[in-house]
Amino acid sequence: xxxxxxxxxxxxxxxxxxxxxxxxxxxxxxxxxxxxxxxxxxxxxxxxxxxxxxxxxxxxxxxxxxxxxxxxxxxxxxxxxxxxxxxxxxxxxxxxxxxxxxxxxxxxxxxxxxxxxxxxxxx
Length: 123
Hints:
The chain has strands at residues 2-7, 10-13, 18-26, 33-39, 46-51, 58-60, 68-73, 78-83, 92-99, 112-113, 117-122. By secondary structure, the chain is an all-beta fold.
């Protein structure tokens, strides 16, 4: 079973930046994809970004494209989400997730989730 631990959330002014990290431990496969999702109060969890094992392939939601960057360091079993030019509508709980697929964008394709970290963007 894969365990994911997130960090890096907080309060930031609009236009600012945050970097989230998520460390994976426990049983992992030799290769696996990772993703980031977010959920605002009263809203469904939505896809933010995903990255393949090699880091070569990435996918982003249109709402964050050009502002957010996903990356990973496999030697540290860690995935990152760099968030720049933050907007109030980015406010949500952010979750990292693990998939046995190389890359995935749909919730049901993920099999392990972090606890979530709160990101609040003030206007």
